[in-house]
Amino acid sequence: MTTTTPAPAESDRDTRFFGQPWALAHVFGVEMWERFSFYGMQIVMVYYLYFSTSEGGLGMPESTAVSIIGAYGGSVYLATILGAWVADRLLGSERVLFYSAIVIMCGHLGLALIPGYAGVTIGLILVAIGSGGLKANATSVVGTLYGPADPRRDAGFSIFYLGINIGAFFGPLVTGFLRTNLGFHWAFGAAAVGMALGLIQYSFGRKQLPAESRVVPNPLPIRGRWIFAGIGLAAVAVIVVLVLTGVIRPDNLSVVIIVTVVGATIAYFAVILSSRRIDSTERSRVFGFIPLFITSVAFWSLYQQQFTVVPIYAEQRLDLNIFGWQMPPDWVQSINPVFIIILSGVFAAIWTKLGTRQPSTPVKFGLGVIIMGIAFLLFLPFAGGGPNTTPLIAMIGIIFVFTVAELLLSPVGLSVATKLAPGAFHTQMVALFFLSVSLGTAISGWLAQFYNPDDEVPYFSILGAIAIVVGIGLLLAVKPVLALMKGVR
Fold first, then answer.
1. I want to staple 299 with a disulfide (CB 3.0 to 4.6 A). Which of 77, 131, 283, 369 is the partner?
2. What is the C-alpha separation between 300 and 297, in angstroms, rounded?
3. What is the number of domains present in the chain?
4. Rounded to whole angstroms, how far apart are CA atoms 289 and 281?
5. CA–CA separation, 1 vs 330, rounded Å?
6. Residues 6 or more apart from 180 whose CB is under 8 A from it?
7. Does residue 109 form part of some domain?
């Protein structure tokens, strides 16, 4: 095994990592450990916020807790804008990825070592910023491993997605076990250790990544750096003032993030579409991305309720008794990654086998959000059953449907973002896809406040129906969307 990175022409023939370029293994590894820490911490955080102080929690109302989790999740993906901008203007994707991993580890250490609201505030801010920087740039780095005509791209992103879900599987198992047996801060400490392992692994392999991953596509002049530094400090000052004056509060964080993301989305599309650095074909492709963006928002608004409504549902409504042993509700979050691990290879093989005959991206998106809507409708037969009455096997089946929907949209969305991206905005188009995740995640936190265990039918039926309508709408618009995408399928 050599330690040099193949040239682009050679990388098309490099099949040492499950048929993919060997350099994929390095990004696969750091993303796996980052997801271990991210998902392991996030599900524990839900319970930490609303469990009573006698149980080791902070005793918040459930509605406030889910709002914070939704806002935090939305902030993670909103921070991809900052990470993408720093990559495109200052450091390049690979360096931002590396430094972001360090910030994430510091955030988890803050949660583990600092008690109470101070630890939550410091920890979540650092993890959100670091995860935002890592996510957009890890995806962008994966995109540099493939030539424009390499048919393995979608399969490669599916395998990359497998790494994400290996981490997502083990994270809640480890932290859930530690939470129930030793306490919340031991669980947060495990997340910090996981991120440290990922950072060490990536440090040894990062030099083997393509030189293109370290290129700064649109370098910022020295004078411009000072200007943006001033803007950044002013933004921080404004946020501090809004918090101190009570404009931003824990119970309205989701709404604040929703408004912020909508504004950022409009501004981002406007900047890219009005740029003189893109040609007419690239501009048309960006327009073609808009209906995909809207569909993605609808999908994530439902899917991300795995971290808002589903934890409460698992703790209060799910029968977790297995032959006399009470399974930690945290472990429900590991069901989805199991299905991802099993099915991601299946989907990768299907797309590879079909090649140019596979469904187009708009078709995959439309089917994905329709199936997500069906998953919500599957909660209806168990509505009104009372505490601990929903069988665990039913939740497993519902999450299986979640997973099928996810595999039709999420890895495909990452891939199409790199294919539709103008040359001058490569990483930032990936950030735009993550903005759709950010908006959907924040909306999921806002929607969760309307979930009522005593009257579940309206909640699940209305949201499921809306998702199905959105998916059908995209399927009906496939031809004009493909025309805008100018040859990208």
1. 369
2. 5
3. 1
4. 13
5. 40
6. 328, 330
7. yes
In degrees rounded to 5, what are phi and psi of residue 387? -65, 140
Determine contact, residues 278/286, Cβ cutoff 8 Å: yes
User: Would 10 be classed as within a structural domain?
Assistant: no
What does DSSP assign to residue 145? T
C-beta of residue 392 within 8 angstroms of C-beta of residue 251: no
* Residues with Cβ within 8 Å of residue 236, at least 6 apart in sequence: none
Q: How far apart are CA 292 and CA 251, in angstroms?
A: 30
What type of residue sits at position 270? A
- To 10 degrees, what angle do helices 253-274 and 280-303 make? 170
CB atoms within 10 A of CB 476: 10
Distance, CA of 110 to CA of 116 (rounded, Å) = 11
Cβ neighbours for 247, distance < 8 A, ≥ 6 positions apart: none
Residue 17: strand pairing partners:
20
* Residue-wise pLDDT tens digits, 92-130: 888 888 889 899 999 999 888 888 888 888 888 888 888
Domain coverage including residue 244: 19-485
* CA dihedral (193, 430, 297, 64) positive or negative: positive
Indicate if the alpha-carbon torsion angle 207, 208, 211, 213 is positive or negative: negative
The CATH number of the domain holding residue 149 is 1.20.1250.20
Question: How many Cβ atoms from other residues are within 10 Å of residue 28's Cβ?
Answer: 25
Q: Give yes or no for residue 7 having a pLDDT over 60.
A: no
Q: Which amino acid is at 139?
A: T
Return d(Cα 174, Cα 39) in angstroms, integer: 11
Measured in degrees and rounded to the nearest 5, phi and psi for residue 52 equal -70, 160
Give the separation between CA 364 and CA 362, rounded to whole angstroms. 5
What whole-number distance in Å separates Cα of residue 416 and Cα of residue 3?
30
Structure tokens at 235: 């933004």
Question: Which letter does DSSP use for residue 42 in this model?
Answer: H
Q: Which residue pairs from 480-487 have beta carbons closer than 8 angstroms and sit at least 24 positions apart in sequence?
A: 481/288, 481/291, 481/292, 481/362, 482/288, 482/360, 482/362, 483/288, 484/284, 484/285, 484/287, 484/288, 485/284, 485/285, 485/288, 485/289, 485/361, 485/420, 486/281, 486/284, 486/285, 486/288
Tell me the C-alpha distance between 454 and 451, whole Å.
9
In a domain, 4, yes or no: no
Quick check: 298 pLDDT over 80? Answer: yes
Q: Is the pLDDT of residue 389 over 90?
A: no
Judge whether 235 lies within some domain: yes
